[in-house]
Amino acid sequence: MLSPKPALLAMVVSSLFTSSAAYAAAPGKPAIAWGPTKFAIVEVDPAATSYNKLVKIKDGADVSVSWNIWSGDIGQSAKVLLDGKEVWSGPSSATGSATFKVHKGGRYQMQVALCNADGCTLSDKKEIVVADTDGSHLAPLKPVLQENNKPYANKSGKVVGTYYVEWGVYGRKFTV
Fold it and tell me: How far apart are CA 89 and CA 61, in angstroms?
C-alpha cells in the first residue's frame, strides 16, 4: 500500500479549507415577528381627579421587537435599526428579541440586521409609531379642497399676501 506524500496531503487539506471559505455568506434574512407597532412616551390616566395627574410623561417609550430566521446562517450579532440608525445590538440567534427606549416621538421604519464577518442581512421594514405630546407621531393632514378653496398659482411674479383674523373661524365654520 502506498502512503500519500506530505505535499499531496497538504494540497488536499488546503483545498478543503479554501473551498469552504468560498461558500461563506452573510446571514439569512430575519423576519420581524408580529407585535405591537404603537408606543407612547406619555400616559393618560382617565381616572385622574386633577389636571396635574391626568398626563404622565415618561423618559422614553419602551419598544420591543422579536424576530425569526427561517433559513441560512444566524450570524454572530444582531442589531435593531430605526430609520437606518442603530438603537440596539446584541448576540444573534435563530429567534431573538430586543427591548429599547425611544426618547422622541415620531414615525420610524424599524429593521433587524443579522451580521457576521461576511456582512449583514436586513429584514423588511416595519413602521412603528411613538406618540408624544408634540404631535410628531401624527400623519400629515391632507385636507379636501372644496369648490371655493383652490390652490393659488402666482403667475404675476409679485409678492402676494393675505390677512386672516383668528376670530374668522367662529360662526362661519371656515378653517384656513
Answer: 18
Q: Has residue 79 got a pLDDT over 80? A: yes
Domain that residue 91 falls in: 25-138
CA distances to 16, 28, 59, 100, 130 from 105, rounded to whole Å, are 53, 32, 11, 14, 5
- With respect to residue 10, please indicate whether it lies within any of the assigned structural domains: no
Q: How many domains, in total, are found in the chain? A: 1
What's the CATH code of the domain at 61? Answer: 2.60.40.10
Each residue of 67-84: b (16+ CB within 10 Å) or e? bebeeebbbeebbbbbee
Residue 116 burial class via C-beta count within 10 angstroms: exposed 0-12, middle 13-18, buried 19 and up = middle
72 and 45 Cβ atoms separated by less than 8 Å: no
**Residue 71 included in any domain:** yes
- Distance (Å, rounded) from C-alpha 57 to C-alpha 44? 9
Rounded Cα gap, residues 27 and 120, in angstroms: 7
pLDDT at 133: 84
Residue 110, strand partner residues: 82, 126
β-bridge mates for residue 68, sequence order: 31, 95
Give the pLDDT score at 57: 86
Per the listing, cell 406619555 goes with 42
> Per mean pLDDT, which range of 48-52, 60-64, 65-69 is the poorest?
48-52
